[in-house]
Specification:
Layout (H helix, E strand, L loop, with lengths): L16 E3 L5 H7 L3 H12 E3 L6 H13 L6 H5 L6 E5 L6 H4 L4 E5 L16 E7 L8 H10 L1 E10 L9 E2 L22 E2 L4 H7 L4 E8 L3 E7 L1
């Protein structure tokens, strides 16, 4: 059964949405996606708020943050409260940066100046690490998650998204033809896919040293976020 989101955008409170398909035939074939998988991944990436332009996956990330910190209202409202939550954002998490930057302690780091495999950031520096659809593009996602774990303080959390094909196991694309996200016919090296994540994504989190991994469902199966706890 597929549960669909309906209501207001958890990022900005907007109530008008639009959708456009984002997958193209070469990527669909490379990932060997079924018709239903194509539908929910297109919805995950292409369904978006017309006010803040965040798509369903970043709405899921926002909703997971609000739920985890027991916040009523929107992420926009939460970020303007003056909370002292210390947040590390690794690469731009969709269009959330403009909101997260309003927190009293927010740091954005981006590739290639910062490599998630070796963050060059002091250990135990942050309460929350956030990233969205980044891990599939790094050669060692377990190492990347261990770096996220390292920079978190006691009781810290890493809340993130990756594209998950829910009815299969994860696979590395080593030895397969190169596959890129982004846009058709644009093969940017930082968009090269190293890992296709599946139902066993939680293993990467626990192997990286986190004590628990919760799967937060904003809409199943299109909009899932992961909450990793120290």
């Amino acid at each position: 059964m597929m549960f669909r989101f309906s209501g207001v955008c958890p990022v900005c409170g907007g109530s008008e949405f639009a959708r456009s398909d984002v997958l193209w035939p070469e990527l669909i074939n490379a990932w060997q996606l079924s018709v239903s998988e194509v539908d929910y991944i297109n919805r995950q990436q292409g369904f978006h708020c017309k006010q803040c332009f965040n798509n369903l996956r970043t709405m899921a990330l926002s909703a997971a943050i609000l739920c985890e910190y027991r916040v009523q209202g929107t992420l926009s409202e939460f970020c303007e409260t003056g909370t002292e939550l210390s947040v590390l954002e690794i690469n731009h998490a969709g269009n959330l940066t403009g909101y997260l930057s309003k927190l009293s302690s927010h740091k954005l780091v981006e590739y290639p100046q910062f490599d998630v495999l070796d963050l060059k950031i002091e250990s135990e520096s942050f309460d929350l690490v956030v990233h969205s659809d980044t891990l599939e593009h790094v050669s060692n996602p377990e190492r990347a998650l261990s770096e996220c774990r390292r920079v978190l303080r006691d009781n810290g959390k890493c809340i993130f998204t990756v594209p998950i094909v829910t009815d299969r196991m994860s696979r590395f694309r080593t030895g397969l033809a190169p596959s890129y996200h982004g846009q058709s016919e644009i093969n940017a090296e930082d968009q090269l896919v190293h890992t296709e994540f599946g139902a066993d994504m939680w293993k990467f989190v626990l192997k990286a040293g986190f004590t628990s991994c919760e799967i937060f469902s904003f809409e199943y199966p299109a909009a899932l976020a992961l909450i990793a706890k120290v």
